[in-house]
Amino acid sequence: MKAMKESPFRHRASLRGGASLLLLAALAGTRLAAGAGDAAAEAPRVRILELFDSIQPVTAQYVKQELLDADKTKCSLVILELDTPGGLVSSTQEIVGAITASKVPVAVFVRGAHAASAGFFITLASDVAVMAPGTRFGAAHPVGLFGSGGGKEAAVLLQKAENDLAAWVRTLAQNRGRNVSLAEEAVRSSRAFTEKEALEGGLIDYVLRDPSAILSTLDGKSIRRFGGESLTLHLRSAAVARVRMSTRDRILSWIANPEYVLVLLVLGVLGLYVEFTHPGLIFPGVIGSVCLLCFASAAQILPINYVGLLLVILGVGLFLLELKVTSLGVLTAGGIASLVLGSLMLFRREEAQGLEVPLRSALAVALAASLLMAFLTQRVLWAHRQSVTTGQEGLIGMRGEAMSEINPEGRVFVRGETWNARSAAPVAKGKQVKVLGVQGMMLRVEELGNQDDSTSGRIA
To answer: SS in 3 state form for 252-267?
Structure first.
C-alpha cells in the first residue's frame, strides 16, 4: 500500500525532470542559433565597383559615394574595377583623395583594356594594385595645349602641368611603397607598362584574373594603409556585392562622353535648321532642342574650348550654306576642315588628360555630314533643272481642249480648270490646244498639229 501511495509523486518528479531537460535543450538550441546568426552577421563584406568610363564629375561622385556607403556598412574591402582612357584632372584628384582617405581598404583592379592617364594615378593611390593579364596602364604625361596658343607661353604652361603631375605621382608612389622613378617616367616620358612590367617594376602588387582570385589571395594578408598603419584582411567566406552606377548616372555619364558630345552638337544644329526652314515638321525641332539641351548639360561637366566650339558650328554652317550657294564643293571642303579641327580642339586639354574626341570619330562625323550635304545638294540641283509645274509659269506648255470656238477668244479646259483663251488663228471646238503664255486670267493658245501633239510631253 505504501509503495502504491508513493508512485504518483515519483511520476510527477520524473515529469518535472523531463521538462527541465527539454527546457535546457531548447535554451541550448537558442544559444547555438544565436551564435550562428552572430557568426553570419560578422561575415566580412566586400563591395565591387565598376568604373568603365572616362573620369569626370559623374564617375567621381559615384566612387566617392560608394566608398562612404562601404564605410557605413562596415565593409572589409572595396574592389574598384577600372578601365578608362583618362579624364579630368580635377575629378581624378577627387577620386584619389577619396581612396587615400577611405577607412575601408581599396583594391584597384585594372581589367578590360587599360587604365591610361588618370587611371594610372588612381591605381597607384590604391591600397592594393592589381592588373588582369593582357592589360596595361601608364602614359600619364600632360598632352600639348592644342588650341591654347603656341610659343613660350604654351611651353611654360605645359612644363608647369608636367611638374605638378610628376610631384603628385611621386608622393603617391612613396606613400604606397611603390617604384617612384618608374611612376615619374609615366608622367614625364609618357611611358606605359604591361601588367608583367608593372609587377616586376614594383608599380603594382599582383596580376590576377578576377575578383574571386583577389579575395583568396588577400585573405590573411597584411596591407599598409596610406597613413602608415598596417591592417590584416580577413576575407574568407566574404559576402560580395557588386554595385553599378544608377540609371541616372549612366545617362549623365553617356552624355559626358566626348564622342557623343560632338554628335549631340551637330544633330542639335541640323535639327533646328531643318525646323526653321520647314516650319511645322515639329520632329526635327524637338530632336534638335533635346540634343542641344543635352550638349549644354555636358558643357557644364566637361571643360569646353570655345574656339573649338565655334569651329564646329562654323563647319555645320558651311555645310548648310552649300545648299544655298553653288560653290563647286569649296564650302563643303571648308566645312569638313572646320568640323575636324573644331572637334580636336573641343576640350581644354590642360584640364582633361586623355579626354578628347578621337580623330576617327571627328573624321566619321565630318564624312557623314559631307555625304548628307552631297545628297541634299544633288537633290536641290535636280529640282532647279525641273520645269515649273505650279502657278502661272507652270501653265506654259500645257495642253488642253477647246471648250468652244476660239475666234479670236473662247474657252479652253487646261489642267482640270476652264480658262478664257485667245488665239491668233481660229480654233474649232474640241481641238487640242497648247498654252503659249498667260496674260492675267487670259491664256494665249494655239492649235496643236499632229507633229506638236506627238512630240509634246506636257498633258492637261
So the answer is: HHHHCCHHHHHHHHHH
Question: How much is the pTM?
Answer: 0.67
d(CA 116, CA 63): 18
pLDDT tens-digit profile of 218-270?
Answer: 999 999 999 889 999 999 999 999 999 999 888 888 888 877 888 888 888 88
- Parse the chain into domains and list their residue ranges: 45-248, 257-385, 393-455
- Is residue 169 within 8 A of residue 124, CB to CB? The reply is yes
Distance CA(398)–CA(460), nearest Å, equals: 6
User: Cell triple for residue 392?
Assistant: 502661272
Three cell numbers at 409?
A: 477668244
Question: What are the b/e assignments for 240-254, b being 16+ CB within 10 Å?
Answer: eeeeebeeebeebbe
Residue 427 DSSP label: B
Q: Under a CB-based contact definition with an 8 Å cutoff, are residues 157 and 148 in contact? A: yes
Task: Evaluate whether 45-248 and 393-455 have a shared fold.
Answer: no
In tens, the pLDDT along 264-314 reads: 888 888 888 888 877 777 888 899 999 999 988 888 877 888 888 898 889
Cα–Cα distance for residue pair 242/47, rounded to 1 Å:
6
The CATH H-level superfamily of 393-455 is Nucleic acid-binding proteins (2.40.50.140)
Instruction: State the CATH architecture for 45-248.
Output: Alpha-Beta Complex (3.90)
CB 424 within 8 A of CB 402: no
CA separation for the pair 334, 355 (Å, rounded): 26
> In this structure, are residues 45 and 243 in contact, taking their beta carbons and an 8 Å threshold?
no
How far is Cα 424 from Cα 341, in angstroms, rounded to an integer?
66
